[in-house]
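Local shape tokens:
==================
===
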Amino acid sequence: RRLSERLSRLEAIIANNNIVGNQTSVPPPSQDRPDHHSRFAKLPDNIPLFTGQVKDYMSWWTSFEALILDQPYTPKLKFEAFKRCTAHLTLLQPYHSLEGSLENLESALAKVKLYYGDDVMIGHAMIKQLRQLPAAADRDASALKGLSVAFGAAVQTARRLGNLSAYEGQIREAVLGKLPSSVRLVIAAIPGK
């Protein structure tokens, strides 16, 4: 009789857990649940960490938005991703102890955007970074390439801010001040420059 009861219980467990032979199968996601696409989702490993530097905000935000916010993850998973890439920032520590909910996610994102996403702060950080670059000596191809890359990044950031004209003069002044005089003379000789 005991053996029969145990067998019945075992059959019930097998039926409830969808165990077939030695393999366990996960039941298919319910179509009635609003998060059925992300129920078994795993966050990507390549979520970029936010440095907490204003100059890095735009590139981090663009990546985070594409990899996490625009994906069909649950608010809980999205909030976990946010906490993972901002865990080291003191400003956001109060959010790291909160439950993963849409409300908490939106509140944390608003805090980041308010503090780091200010266009003026990003613009000033970009110009400051350019002014801190070392000056390039004559025929120093590596330094000249570095200035060229920094110039391109600054122009791209100003375009993303939708305000290239406001920063164009400051960007040009900061980069030209770092160039050797021989290069500045060549640039000055170019019509329209």
